[in-house]
Fold:
Amino acid sequence: MPIYPKLLKQIEQLDKEVRYYPPDRFASIIAALRAAPKGSQLYFVCRHNSRRSQFAEFWAHLFNHYFGLNFQIHSAGTVVGPLAAQTTATLQQLGFSLVKGHLYWAEGKGSRLESKLWAINAQSEVPIYAFMLCSEVEADCPYLPEAYQRFSLPYEDPSKVDGQDRAAFVYRQRAEEIGRDLFYIFSKCS
Structure:
């Protein structure tokens, strides 16, 4: 399925930006994911699963598809909260398509856009890799027994500017930062 044109332009831009990343950036993550069995689960975890982890989940879906990888992509929070309206708006501005509660990156390729609780089946047959996206979760969740491996990828919380004139700018900035880092990681795993 072809990726939406606006998202392809985002990918072209990200590819230009990550060319200057130092080669050892995210080396442990890349090594672990290269060695991961096909179908491994990647969970992007943040407190409320309403901003950063949503950005990460949908970028990861897009890059998983783009690079032909075979990860199962999810996001979750330690507390379920309402999905931030600015998160949805930002994802749409980036080129994702929202239809009946699902966000799509290509025709027929989408996932439900909702806040979800970290509640993992400990009997999973494939490894679970947890990406902790905020320092708040690191403090609240030092132990996730279901995760085969945890990685810290902290990002500043855009909710700090909710209700302010610059909210749209900050959300877009945070989404692009997360997208840039995940593009780099996924590009090195293909």
Q: What stands out?
A: The chain has a mean pLDDT of 91. The two ends are 18 Å apart (CA to CA). Strands lie at 41-46, 72-77, 97-99, 102-106, 109-112, 128-132, 149-152.
